Amino acid sequence: MKRIMILGATSAIATACARLWAADGGRFFLVGRDAEKLWQVAADLSARGASEAHVHVLDLTRVADHHTLFEHGFAALGAVDIALLAHGILSDQALCQSDVGAAVREFETNATSVIALLTELGVRLSAARAGTIAVISSVAGDRGRASNYPYGAAKAAVTAFSAGLRARLYPVGVHVLTIKPGPVATPMTAGMRLPGLLVATPEQVARDIVGAVRAGKGTLYTPWFWRPIMVIIRAMPEAILRRLPL
Amino acid sequence: MSRHLSSWGRFPDFPQVEHRADWRAQLPQCLARLHERVGTTLVYGNGRSYGDSCLAASDNVIGTIALDRFVEADWVDGRIIVEAGVTLGQILELAVPRGWFLPVVPGTQYVTVGGAVANDIHGKNHHVRGTFGRHVVSFGLLRSDRGILRCSPQENADLFAATIGGLGLSGVIEWIELRLMPVPGGELTVTEQRFTSIADFFALSNELDAGHEYAVSWIDCLARGASAGRGVYAVGRHSASTGIAMPRRNRLRIPLTPPVSCVNGLTLRAFNLIYYRARRAGRSIRNVAFEPFFFPLDRILEWNRLYGPRGFQQFQCVLPEASAEAACRELLAAIGASGRGSFLAVMKRCGVLESPGLMSFPLPGVSLALDFPQHAELALSLFPRLDAIVRAAAGRFYPAKDAHMNAADFQRQYPGWTRVEALRDPALDSRFWQRVTRA
Known about the structure:
The complex is a heterodimer of chains A (246) and B (439). Chain A has helices at 12-22, 35-47, 66-77, 93-98, 100-128, 149-169, 202-215, 226-235, 238-241, and strands spanning 3-7, 27-32, 52-57, 82-85, 132-136, 175-181, 219-222. Chain A has 246 residues and is of the alpha/beta class. Chain A has a single domain (3-241), classed as Rossmann fold (3-Layer(aba) Sandwich). A 7-stranded parallel sheet of chain A has the order 3-2-1-4-5-6-7, sandwiched between helices. In chain A, helix 1 (12-22) packs across helix 7 (202-215) and helix 5 runs parallel beside helix 6. In chain A, 44% of the residues are buried. In chain B, 28% of the residues lie in helices and 25% in strands. In chain B, helix 9 runs antiparallel to helix 10. Chain B is globular, with a radius of gyration of 21 Å. Chain B has 439 residues and is an alpha+beta fold. Chain B has a domain at 187-405: 3-Layer(aba) Sandwich (Vanillyl-alcohol Oxidase, Chain A, domain 3), CATH 3.40.462.10. Chain A binds chain B through residues 12, 36-37, 40-41, 43-44, 46-49, 185, 187, 189-194, 199, and chain B through 1-2, 20, 22-25, 66, 69-73, 80, 94.
């Protein structure tokens, strides 16, 4: 039975992953901001086969409280086989372009708090010399684009940080998986105009994530077709990219 | 993303604006906001109602498909509490490996539990288990005027009865407590036999229905002359697994809507002939996995697209025992003469077990269901003829499938409607309800 810590456990992608792990009897430590939602997710996972589901209420941008969070989490589970970092926000782009507070908050939530969590997890798992840290970044982090660069910049930080951590922890046997989904139909993207054919479901993305964790992959593009698309977008000269409505 | 939704038959065409609720706690605010902004609304689950019973009078629905969480599950005693947007397939996926089954399943596993209650659905075992509503222990109902109420045969009994088969009008169902049925495994032992006439069907049904959990027949509604009334009768019961491979989870999806219907006289005749000829003449017994037995069409996702942009209508009626045989024959003759037909015309016996709901569809007798590609002529000539036959036989139509019945027929067939109307939540109303109660 896997011991699984999920940070941002009420997000749609996290829930879909958790359901797959629950089917194998996983033991869970679920972290999120909203107690009622967390308890609803915990109850759902228990019904689906989870052997335990603990709940911890915390706004993960409160970096000072991370230490207590991990004390509780590791006490409840004993050790952690999989840590999934799934919390994040996607703010209104127009607001982020003009409002300093919104632009900084976007980075604090999506990058700073994640870097803090990755650091602490890196310390704890390298001491245990085992486990997988899976962190949800985004294809948006591969290249700064006019339509969502504040979000993309934060995800770029997560991508680079987790890649470095992966290399550092490789010798001690700890896996770090960087997950780069394309747009996914979730409450976070509700109301946005997205390219219908390219939008994945949380369940599709979750199957890929659970498979990549099991296989010990380094970087996961999900669905798969984002890998070739991003090869092209990354290779595009700046002179062309800045003229495209991307 | 906010989507524009339609009913399964895509007729009538009133695109619905979806207002998503992702958590139960969002429902009260969502309901109140829509009540204030557009007058009335309606809950839309997975969109498997065929006609206009799932379309809001205001064309603004509350989408609950994300309310797909289990609230509680007792896999020892076979009792579960689920949110209203959980589909029957999601329950079966967890229940079957643990030795449980839903006591009633319809022809698709993609309906939500909320929809199953609101339409008080029935299955191939109506003669043994009655409707879905009989297996509902309790549910949580959100009213715009009274807040959240727990309903059961003992508590808020009036709303319990008005909600089962109440077409989503008595309040917003948040969660449902269900009793499951123990089964030895995920397979069924199925006995099939071809029949050559309606009289033959009744003889088979009289002989075999009672001894089996499930019974259903397919009938070739395009066959005429000597072969009129031919079909395939099947009964089944749950059996222990013998290791039959479960069907692959990857299913075929119809990727787009063809410009015209792929369902026409030619394809129908070919399909019906092959379906009939594929069966041997005698009686055959075999073991099958439960999915292809109960949900043959679920293997083709979004099969409703095959009917093209105009969509299709289903005609489903139930005929009382006394007049059933004669009326079935008349209905098939009228359909045969029209040349319009259906892929799978489904015929089954309904039993005497009563529903706890006020507007449940089944009654003791025979139910007949057919799909027709949408065409103006349906409303002009074929349906009026079929309606007259059902009326004369004192039968009734199925609101969950309906896009054509008139107000007088509905009100005569469902006298309980006045009590449902009296208990209707002032914030809820559907296009169906407007059509059949205010015409």
